[in-house]
Amino acid sequence: MRHFILSFFILFTFSAFSQVSQLNKSPLSIETIMQDPAKWIGTSPSDISWSEDGAKIYFQWNPEQDTLESLYAYELSSEEIEKVSLDEKKTLPGRRGDYNSDKSKKVFTRNGNLFLLDIKSGKEKQLTAWFDRASSPEFVLGDSKIAFTLDNNLFTIDPETGLITQLTNFVSGNEKKDKSSTGQAKWLEDQQKELFVVLQEREAKSKARENRQEMEKVDEPLKVYTGKKRVMDISLSPTGDYISYSLYERAADAKATSVTHHVTESGYTEERNARAKVGSPQASVEMGIFDVKNNKLISIDKTQIPGLKDLPDYLSDYPESMPKEDEEIEDRDVNLLGPLWNETEDMAVVVALSQDNKDRWIMLLNPETGDLELLDRQRDEAWIGGPGIGGWGMSTGSIGWMPDGESVWFHSEESGYSHLYAVNCKTKKKTTLTKGEFEVSEASISNDKKSFYFIANKQHPGVKHLYKMPVWGGKLTQITSMEGGNEVTLSPDEKYLAIRHSEANKPWELYLQENKAGAEAIQLTHSTTDAFNEYDWRTPEYITFNAADGSEVHARLYRPESPEQNGPAVIFVHGAGYLQNAHKWWSSYFREYQFHNILVDNGYTVLDIDYRGSAGYGRDWRTGIYRWMGGLDLSDQVDGAKMLVDKYNVSADKIGIYGGSYGGFITLMAMFNEPETFSAGAALRSVTDWAHYNHGYTANILNTPVQDSIAYVKSSPINFADGLQGNLLMCHGMVDDNVQFQDIVRLTQRLIELGKENWELAVFPVEAHGFVEPSSWTDEYRRIFKLFEETLK
């Protein structure tokens, strides 16, 4: 009987998937589009860099479909692409490193050793030969020395003489306690010394020896015990008089989760530690200054940061927890990040981030006293974020010194969009450098210090171009011209651009362009396979529609050439929340893009919305989900569905929805809270209860469960499972260490207890959050297609 049941199950499963293949009217199959993308689509060039002399462009590529990608080089003089041999690769300078003032030399590490490169001649000089691993080399003291980190301490090396000097003396662990006797033991020791001359003589000799050793001792840096903290970001001031450092301390009481692996090499289940949950204690960063001349530590006075006692607005929903007296309000925890030293003066700028991520301060640091002075404060009652701004606890964002040596440039969402600003450290005057309803990212100052280069979506929210602008603001000159996505790497002399470009239906390729507005971009690589190119991949329509609150929503729309009257539709919900997918470049959701082509071939209209919380549309859009995930981000899907019915001949009874991660969460909220809009949904690797997700992401948007329970209750699908009416498919990897398997198991038990019948759960034993195996992808999307075919037609 048992064999019969198993055989029947296998036969039924095979039959069901065979039926899916028969239902599919597209020339594409799910098996085809879900196979290894390197073999089916091809491998796009990636990891672009220039040779130091600007003669070659290096990139990772795999046109021959080898097991692994390899390093390739395009030579500008010969206009040829060649695979870089392993022997040549070993001799290439490290990508990271530092240049001297005139960029004639570069210091870098290779296998932990320091090398000095003369860029004009191409000759290298090896400065160290050891089995240790030096890191973070940089030119200091007017390019006369090279500083580097080794074993959590800062050293300098003289490139001419090879002399290495240790500048800091950080020691892990704690200082040994004084073992001097006390009480009864001390009384006995004193008695012994009084009674026996030999003990008195020995003690005198010992003290004399210690005094001589102290007098003969070579001066060394103050020994600083770091306990269990990790030393980070050690850097030398321009004059060499001060050294800044940071001490990173992990949260000792944060309870980690674990993930059970069932399919293992050992044959036994194995537990692997994973992240903690939101609301757990957080790591902290403490910054300090070492006064080299006086061999002492200088503490930084964080109490000089304004607004440390400012309470967030959401606490007004909890009057019982509001402090009754100002004296009861404690300073918020703040991490100091950086610093950014001035090029010539012992003056530094640090970025302070509150651990609740509602404030970012840019502060001027006086290393002599440890005093802080405010340069700029950005407060956001939702959370600090946006392109170039940092946030998330441990990032300074993009920041640098202006050519005048007195001002620093930085990003801020002060205007509602991430733009560039500069503030003078002496006068405190702030200057707006860019403005408009678009976002700026990847900013840098040109070699001649006269211009800014940056990426902006000024032309369209879904198009990114390289722009050039006078360094103190002014006219923006668009350098790239190809519509879509443009990832630009400037040549060392800034005469050329290496561009990784893609379009909605064309994967990323490498182009070369002169650094001139309107110059032609020449395609260097052709990476897609013949099989992939045989299909006529659709360019989606880029549309906008009005949400119920009047906001303009951007989306991709895919339609059949001859859509049937009252036909079916599927809404795809991208993941991550803060991500953009209604753009004009090749999507990271390329499997889903191909699946949408299959759906359209089968008569579906497909809508892909950049809902509230998505990237690319400014601060208000970014924070539109604050304290209510499943609010405006869900209503944008509902409004999109209504638009399909009103404008595109879609039947109101034939609309499905699907997505993964955050998209899976929205799918669950849609199926539980909007059953009259969505007949079917496929929720993949879904968050079902935000109180069980990680801290860094969740606390920004919903605060913490203890402090803001209202936000968690109305944002978690598990609380609304009783509303399920349509047909629900849930898929989840069992070794997901991001949105963990426990999430979907808890929701499953809830659905069982509620007596719901029209749902199913498919589990994938070897998959984590991002699926890897083509067989898993194929199985998952066969199920999704089958769901829509059976419930929407």
UniProtKB/TrEMBL annotation:
<dbReference type="Pfam" id="PF00326">
    <property type="entry name" value="Peptidase_S9"/>
</dbReference>
<dbReference type="InterPro" id="IPR029058">
    <property type="entry name" value="AB_hydrolase_fold"/>
</dbReference>
<dbReference type="GO" id="GO:0008236">
    <property type="term" value="F:serine-type peptidase activity"/>
</dbReference>
<feature type="signal peptide">
    <location>
        <begin position="1"/>
        <end position="18"/>
    </location>
</feature>
<dbReference type="GO" id="GO:0006508">
    <property type="term" value="P:proteolysis"/>
</dbReference>
<dbReference type="InterPro" id="IPR002469">
    <property type="entry name" value="Peptidase_S9B_N"/>
</dbReference>
<dbReference type="InterPro" id="IPR050278">
    <property type="entry name" value="Serine_Prot_S9B/DPPIV"/>
</dbReference>
<protein>
    <submittedName>
        <fullName>Prolyl oligopeptidase family serine peptidase</fullName>
    </submittedName>
</protein>
<dbReference type="Pfam" id="PF00930">
    <property type="entry name" value="DPPIV_N"/>
</dbReference>
<feature type="domain" description="Dipeptidylpeptidase IV N-terminal">
    <location>
        <begin position="237"/>
        <end position="508"/>
    </location>
</feature>
<dbReference type="GO" id="GO:0008239">
    <property type="term" value="F:dipeptidyl-peptidase activity"/>
</dbReference>
<dbReference type="InterPro" id="IPR001375">
    <property type="entry name" value="Peptidase_S9_cat"/>
</dbReference>
<keyword id="KW-0732">Signal</keyword>
<feature type="domain" description="Peptidase S9 prolyl oligopeptidase catalytic">
    <location>
        <begin position="598"/>
        <end position="793"/>
    </location>
</feature>
